[in-house]
Design a protein that fits this description.
globular; alpha+beta; four-stranded antiparallel β-sheet; single chain; 87 residues
Length: 87
């Protein structure tokens, strides 16, 4: 079981969150991208662009934040944070 927690923040307050569960035998990377696709669909967002800083932070902490620079469209919040809570 793979679980990813996604949260939207604005002015240091959480606006909404969701937990995505993926139960398959795919690789960790495929599970992450599948979960992010579901989060973006649920929150009605475009998929974020992974910058080198996101990749480095995610490798170290299994957590990263996507700011306006990571999205093609404009966003109504300060950042989207994703965090793996179970593998």
């Amino acid at each position: 079981m793979f679980r990813l927690w996604a949260k939207e923040f604005k002015d240091n307050r959480m606006l909404r969150d969701t937990v995505i569960e993926v139960d398959n035998d795919d690789t960790r990377t495929h599970n992450i991208f599948h979960a992010i696709d579901e989060v973006c669909h649920e929150f009605d967002l475009s998929n974020p662009i992974w910058l080198d800083s996101n990749i480095d932070e995610f490798k170290r902490h299994a957590k990263t934040r996507f700011h306006q620079d990571n999205f093609v469209d404009s966003i109504e919040f300060d950042y989207l944070e994703i965090h793996i809570i179970e593998e």
